[in-house]
Design goal:
Number of strands of chain A: 4
Structural class of chain A: mainly alpha
Distance between the termini of chain B: 45 Å
Radius of gyration of chain A: 21 Å
Number of domains of chain B: 1
Structural class of chain B: mainly alpha
Distance between the termini of chain A: 25 Å
Largest sheet of chain A: 2 strands, antiparallel
Order of helices and strands of chain A: HHHHHEEEHHHHEHHHH
Radius of gyration of chain B: 19 Å
CATH class of chain B: Mainly Alpha
Order of helices and strands of chain B: HHHHEEHHHHHHH
Oligomer: heterodimer
Shape of chain A: globular
CATH topology of the largest domain in chain A: ABC transporter involved in vitamin B12 uptake, BtuC
Strand order of the largest sheet of chain A: 1-4
CATH architecture of chain B: Orthogonal Bundle
Helix content of chain B: over 70%
Largest interface: A-B, 39 and 44 residues
Amino acid sequence: MEKNKKLPVAKIALCMVLLALPFLFTAVGFQYGVLVCCFAFLYIIAVSGLDIDFGYCGQISMGHAAFFAIGAYGSVMLHQYFHIPIIFTMVIATVLAAAVGAVIAYPASKLVFHFLSLATIAFGEIVYSLLLNSPKGVTGNAVGMFTDSINLLGFSLSSNESFYYFGLACTAIFLMAKWLMVNSKVGRAWVAIRENPHAAGGMGINVTKYKVMAFAVSAFYTGFAGAMYAHLVRYIGPDTFTQKQSVMFVTMMLFGGTGSILGPIVGAVLVFSITEGLRMFEQYQMLIYGALLLVVIVALPGGVYGEMKKLAGKLLQKGKGGEKSAA
Amino acid sequence: MLLQILVSGFVLGCVYGLIALGYSLIYKSSGLMNFVQGDVLTLGAFLGYTFYSLLGLPYWLSLICTVLTAFVFGLFMEKFVIRKLLRKSVLAIYIVLATIAIQYILQNAIQAIWSTKMLNYPQIFPVPSVSVAGIMVQSESIFCIVMSFVCMAGLQFFMKYTRFGTAMRAAAMDAKAAQACGINTSLSTGISWGIAAGMAALAGILLGPIYGVFIMLGSTIGRKGFAGAIMGGYGNMYGAIVGGILLGLVETLVAGYLSSTYKDMIAYALLLLFLFVKPTGIFNERAITE
């Protein structure tokens, strides 16, 4: 009973803080923080999507930058060449990313772990070289493309503060959808496939169908994040969508912890903050990034959130054990 | 024109073959995937340049020094990172990511030690080019092809006819049974990572005089080398060589006759095609399936 009473208070407090954050940043004179939050939101969406694919369904993807690119370029190109209002182009491009994801996932669902990562890398590279050398230069090739900010029912989200609230709303919707999905029949099927695909098949789960579904859903998430990125930065170039970006998504996911709602949030926020914080060491960015990755892999195999949960579990058990021995 | 293209395709193909051979060796001995190969190639090219051009050692000696350094690098990488992770029995994705992390560190370290500028080897052979069947071929290209074949044949001989090679094959086939027979499986896995790195470095020092030495020399070659390994049948030694050479030829032919913009895409398209349609490759290697 008490727990039920307590929880909403914490949740409401969190919501209040999140809503007030831009004002807080402005009050302290740290305007840049708002932009960092905007980026954090879109990375949270992208990494949550990747987590559906890997954390729940057990399929690795080292080429999610491709879906990020399809979302971003799709939205920008639809707006530029067909003059569709931006919010609709974002939705269309996201659906497109999911469709491409499904097409790739169908043959890829048969591949075992290592070869799935190779296939997704190859797919990412193909998309990247298409961006760089597109037919008739529709993607602007190496120069990239400039675009406008989102126009939502007449309100232009050109300021970082307005984008912050848009990002917050989108993140909330996407996380809610993820929570609903993973707690449904579909989510249970995914977990069953992750644990043992053969056993899952034996239980009557259509393994291929659910694998394709997980991949498409995760492409949907990442595609939408890409579209958000395009209209936040208002410029896209092929350099954003390289193999490095895919590895960054995977790092964020593993850093935070897989197979949970909170893990990807923790990972996206932490890794993005660390890379932003180390901007001044640009020359050694890759070195630091690689070292960070290695440390996480060796020291924190469950991710930050996963290890914290383990630690909390241990402490709780110790506490209980203590009570018992005292009794 | 065609002959010229075939020769340069063969040079590139031999390099892919050496890289793919390393992938197959590592996959056979430990069931793992190594993303560092390409950057070890870069390292090899830079090391070779340092030994040969800066320290003034003879070419053959700098070649041996480079390969030995890379061998030690591969051995240490297996001993201090991969084996540690394997002992913890982490998910396979973490090991793949660990090799990617090492790749980043290596790339940045090379950039910090040498420069971001492109370096050129001084001339190695007294005769810059040789006439073969009516066309002029760079002597370094011929040397690259010959050395690659010597290396591949040497590896075959080592694996087939030496005591240690037999032990390594046994360890790859069934680690537990090999251990029961008294084979040091940990050492044999380490050696195979070392050999793979040594071959990549050899490819680097052979390719350096032809392509020039720069930081990104190896990373694309490393990634495309996977296509060669898959085409031949991942884990198959002959497959790696045949697949690598085939990939080099196809790529240069496409670049020469169709369009050079899509030459990178061809390798990845072939990789996907083979994975989706014939994952066992040309040599029907079964290692790829569960």
